[in-house]
Amino acid sequence: IWFTALGISTMAFNLNGFNFNQSVVDSQGRVINTWADIINRANLGMEVMHE
Length: 51
Prior knowledge:
Blueprint: H1 2-12, E1 24-25, E2 31-32, H2 35-50
Organism: Nymphaea colorata
GO biological process, one term: photosynthetic electron transport in photosystem II
Protein name: Photosystem II protein D1
């Protein structure tokens, strides 16, 4: 049941839930956090809490 919830949540946000890499890096190598990163991190936190 949790795998279906994971699949639905990742498809809803169009993210792969197992991607821990940052999305955007500028020309000097600094990480730019986007809303996708924040949602992805919150999504992973929710999945950890379910376990």
